[in-house]
C-alpha cells in the first residue's frame, strides 16, 4: 500500500505492508532480528522520520505490553496511521489501540 509520508512530509511516498508472523522468541529478540533485516536491507541512520530504504515496526506481540525507550508494544501510534489499522483489519486483527495503550 502506498501512502503519503508521515512525520516528515518532504520525501517520497511510503510503501507499507502489515505482516503477521509466528515468532518463538521474546519481543526483544524480535526487535534485534528486525534491526538486522533493516541493516541487510541497506538502512542507514537518518533524521527521525526521514527517508529510509526500510523501516520495520513491531505493532503487537500477542497480549504482551512493553514500555522501554527503544521498544514500545503495542506500537504507540497505531491509531494515527490508517494504513496500519487497515492492514491489521485485513489480517483479522481488531486494533482496539489508542495512543498511550489499549482502549
The largest sheet is: 2 strands, antiparallel
Strand content: 5-15%
Structural class: alpha+beta
| SSE string | EEHEEHEE
* DSSP, total strands: 6
Q: What is the terminal-to-terminal distance?
A: 26 Å
Main traits of this protein?
single chain; 103 residues; alpha+beta; two-stranded antiparallel ribbon; 2 helices; 22% helix; disordered C terminus
Structure description:
By secondary structure, the chain is α+β, with helices and mostly antiparallel strands. 22% of the residues lie in helices and 14% in strands. The protein contains 2 helices and 6 strands. Strands 1-2 form a two-stranded antiparallel sheet. The C terminus is likely disordered.
Walk me through the topology:
Blueprint: E1 2-3, E2 14-15, H1 27-40, E3 66-68, E4 71-73, H2 82-90, E5 97-98, E6 101-102
Antiparallel strand pairs: 1-2, 3-4, 5-6
Summarize this structure briefly.
The chain has two helices and six strands.
Amino acid at each position: 500500500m502506498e501512502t503519503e509520508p508521515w512525520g516528515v512530509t518532504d520525501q517520497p511516498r511510503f510503501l507499507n505492508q502489515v505482516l503477521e508472523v509466528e515468532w518463538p522468541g521474546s519481543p526483544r529478540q524480535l526487535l534485534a532480528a528486525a534491526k538486522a533485516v533493516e541493516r541487510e536491507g541497506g538502512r542507514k541512520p537518518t533524521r527521525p522520520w526521514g527517508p529510509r530504504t526500510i523501516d520495520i515496526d513491531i505493532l503487537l506481540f500477542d497480549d504482551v505490553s512493553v514500555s522501554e525507550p527503544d521498544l514500545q508494544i503495542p506500537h504507540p501510534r497505531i491509531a494515527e496511521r490508517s494504513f496500519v489499522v487497515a492492514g491489521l483489519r485485513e489480517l483479522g486483527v481488531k486494533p482496539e489501540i489508542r495512543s498511550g495503550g489499549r482502549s
